[in-house]
Design brief:
Elements: E1 2-6, E2 16-18, E3 24-29, H1 32-44, E4 51-55, H2 58-67, E5 71-75
Parallel strand pairs: 3-5
Antiparallel strand pairs: 1-4, 2-3
Length: about 90
């Protein structure tokens, strides 16, 4: 599985979105190509710096999210996700 981070700052957090309830949700992609495409869309919006796709152990990242009460969603190859139009830079990474 794959997550998205800021290039060169992979240890500082992963990209997340804010859901309708105002909660942070980590996107975990099953397919590297889908993560790369999403990262490219983020970069093209000019609201984000260069992004990096990082491969993660699926069980490890899910366990870390659950242990820290982070919300997450697994993006499958059949899902279509697009970046939000507006960003709140203080809350885009968990």
């Amino acid at each position: 599985m794959y997550i998205i981070t800021i290039s060169g700052r992979e240890e500082e957090g992963a990209y997340s979105v804010t859901n309708e309830s105002g909660e942070q949700v980590l996107y975990i992609f099953q397919e590297e190509d889908d993560a790369a495409r999403f990262a490219m869309l983020l970069e093209e919006s000019d609201s984000y710096p260069e992004m990096n796709v990082v491969e993660v152990e699926d069980l490890a990242v899910i366990e870390a999210c659950e242990a820290n009460d982070y919300n997450y969603v697994i993006i499958t190859k059949d899902d279509i996700v697009i970046p939000p139009e507006e960003t709140d830079e203080e809350h885009d990474f968990i």
